[in-house]
Design brief:
With about 400 residues, the chain is α+β, with helices and mostly antiparallel strands. It has twelve helices and eleven strands. Strands 6, 7, 9, 10 and 11 form a five-stranded antiparallel beta sheet that branches. The chain is elongated. It starts with 12 loop residues before the first helix and ends with a strand.
Length: about 400
Amino acid sequence: MNNLFKPFSNISASKLLQIILNIGFLVILLVGVNSLYSQCNNFSEITLSETTNSTGSYYLDQFFYREKKAIESFFKVKANLNFSPNTNYVNAVAINNGYLYGNNGTIVFTKGIINDLKEIELKLACVLAHEFGHILQYKYGWQFKEHKNDELFCDFIAGIYLSNRPFLLHDFPANYSEALELGRESYVGLYTQHRYGDFEFNDPDHHGTPDERVNATAMGFYLSGYCDQYYGRNNSYFPNISQLYKISQNMIEQGCAELERGEEIFTNYSENYTNCTKALFSEIESVFYRKIWVEFDIYEGREYGMRIHVKFNANKLMYKNCDLIAYFYFASGTEIHDYNGNYRTVTGQVSVGHSFKPNYENALYSDFELFIPYSELHIGRGKNDLKFNLIAFKGNKQLGPPSKFYSFYVNY
């Protein structure tokens, strides 16, 4: 045997393969380390051989372990998590070296960023989820043309994780609303108080301004909360990872992070169906009410009453049997009860509905009509102040939130 290989003559094939891989990795580091990084910043001062799998704190190690497992489980991705104890530079980095370890990449946190954020763990969780966004990019080969948009995509992913985190870790304060508010405070603080964003617009490593990063995170955060609230947990309505990428791509291409805050889209979407709203919801089974108007005092056949007109978008519902229903209330919010069984819900509330079946993935109904006779409102003589709202269903699944209330009065 050649003398060069004698030191390896008693080593198993698998051990020898690992040694060769490690040598190859060192060569890669020597000749082109910067090409491996996600460019969350210039990490030339990090020496991977000096990283460790511990922060040096048992408590923080347990924190990172729990967060890492939750993120990996939720997004179906795997990564090494290392720490650089001798680096005071404030940042974290994702490395595309999964082919060496049988996973999707490596994440490194510096001592600087841990010290900067350890007082509020949710901020560390937000950064970790952001870096896992890059790991997702490595796994699926996703990359935007502009580096800033890669970073905004990862902020979007971080927002989704923060919204789901209480469920994944069974980590609730007093209630879910408080958990969400803590999550929101963490990412807003991260990008505004800690200034994890920049204004170096001509720098190829530009990550987005603090406002852009807050907005991108908010869109993921509120998208996830929207799905939880109206479709429930652990259901087929929540977008899969490919849909999430498409949604974020649509969002970024429309410049949504620059134009609108995520929470505004989710609270005002019915009155403000912008391209950003469409970008966020076009991949989800959903109905969006664009406009509602009413014709009063009209006849349909021999019946005298009112006709509701609705303009709405139906997304991802092609060839699905759906229903649109109007529910009637007194102006005080009290349900109007039916007395003859003609126009009613199963619980006896006055309502009127009609089925629809879209022929397109993203269909627009420009004038959908619902007629109800005044006699079926079961109201007293004189002026009655009333209101209604609309809810769409696919079977017993509600297709998003109700429309806003339409107030009106009837002299009967």
